[in-house]
Amino acid sequence: MEVVTVTEDADSFTCNAYLALGERDVLVDAGAMPGVEDVVSEHTDSLDAVVLTHQHGDHVQELDAVLDAFDADLYAYADHPRRTDELADGDTVAIGDESFEVVHTPGHADDHVSLISDSTIFSGDVVVHDDGAFDYGSFGRTDRPGQSREVEIESIERILDRLPSSVEYMYAGHGGEFHGDVTDVIETALERAEKREPKYPEE
């Protein structure tokens, strides 16, 4: 399965939007980069679906533009005017060439889901490889209204409970992609989250 970060050249703040190419071409998150639909069209003539990890603005700002450009289904946990398929914990969804389990992972956002196959995790913002706070294992911020560090910790634990040992590719909502011991990265993120210290002490 080929995965392309279609927001890689963004000049403004956006999440990483990933185009998974294979039997089923799927965009994981739409991002906030104007023109993202044009980048998608450079890699595929047809987009089967968009799957949302959650509906924060940096993940969905350009969603309408993508859906307008392609006759694609929209998979989301929370309600959305253009949702065609509701995601629930334990569901499976075909992305690229693989089948992914939907894992509800709130804490950073109530509607957050992570997507796990035998080889790959799309982790959204709940856990990332690197960001401005930590390298090699970080977690989504939980200091804003409606967020919870305790719930976030439970979600990271849930990921580890359901993560096959064969997973070696990690595509997170921010930071770089990672290839290697994904379990160790996520365990490191959990240890840091469990300290319950401010992620960004200066804020």
Automatic annotation (TrEMBL):
Keyword Metal-binding attached: yes
Entry superkingdom: Archaea
GO MF: hydrolase activity; metal ion binding
SUPFAM superfamilies, sorted: Metallo-hydrolase/oxidoreductase
Residue stretches making up the Metallo-beta-lactamase domain: 14-174
Cofactor: Zn(2+)
UniProt keywords, alphabetically: Hydrolase, Metal-binding, Zinc
InterPro entries cross-referenced by the UniProt entry: MBL_Glyoxalase_II, Metallo-B-lactamas, RibonucZ/Hydroxyglut_hydro
Gene3D superfamilies documented for this protein: Ribonuclease Z/Hydroxyacylglutathione hydrolase-like
Protein name per UniProt: Glyoxylase, beta-lactamase superfamily II
Organism for this UniProt entry: Natronoarchaeum philippinense
Lineage summary: Archaea, Methanobacteriati, Methanobacteriota, Stenosarchaea group, Halobacteria
